[in-house]
Task: structure prediction
Amino acid sequence: MRVHVVSDVHGNSEGLARAGDGADALVCLGDLVLFLDYADHSRGIFPELFGVENADLIVELRTARRFEEARELGRRLWQGIDRDAAVEAAVRKQYAELFAAFPTPTYATYGNVDIPRLWPEYAGAGTTVLDGERVEIGGRVFGFVGGGLRTPMRTPHEIDDETYAEKIAALGEVDVLCSHIPPDVPELCYDTVARRFERGSSALLEAIRATRPAYALFGHVHQPLARRMRIGGTECVNVGHFASSGTPWVLEW
Result:
């Protein structure tokens, strides 16, 4: 059995169309939407609406953790624009292209920049969306928990710690624990390029220690200090920043 796993697709529909080649199934751990490419500020919804110069500035402010200044810039730029309508129209355009690229079968959960309420409109018959749910793939039980935790970035699908923990608890024991964000371990949460810690989940870490899945797979941190490490008997793996690599992580058994 061969399963390919991707995360942080961020608009890479061309790579996504090839991600399932040679695999029995594709697993996607979210962040399909591209709001702003921190490596190429000309790509994404934000520069399409407000130009590259403003994209350069907001990246500078966010990278410096000057979040209030970044929010003030955003408020000025959005003045007089129906923000929800503009963002939804742009996201719908991306989702139409990205969901069409998913192979059959695909098992997917949400990232922190995704908009879950739109997914049912675009997920075809070959795509199974799971969140706080389990599925058997080739005799192994995969559990999925989507979204991110609350941060000053205020991305679209951030949820409170209690709700996130409840979704993890609903999974019970699984062979492969799939999430968008990592467990709360410094080496797995630190982004070496952004030079900051992203939020990991203490509930995920507790579940790994308590239930000991064979694998814990995640993304979210684009350039992690450690891409993989063992926690007890569990192999914890950041499957990679698919938007830039275009290469899925491979799980075989």
The mean pLDDT is 96. The first strand starts at residue 2 and ends at 6. The radius of gyration is 18 Å. The chain has ten helices and 15 strands.
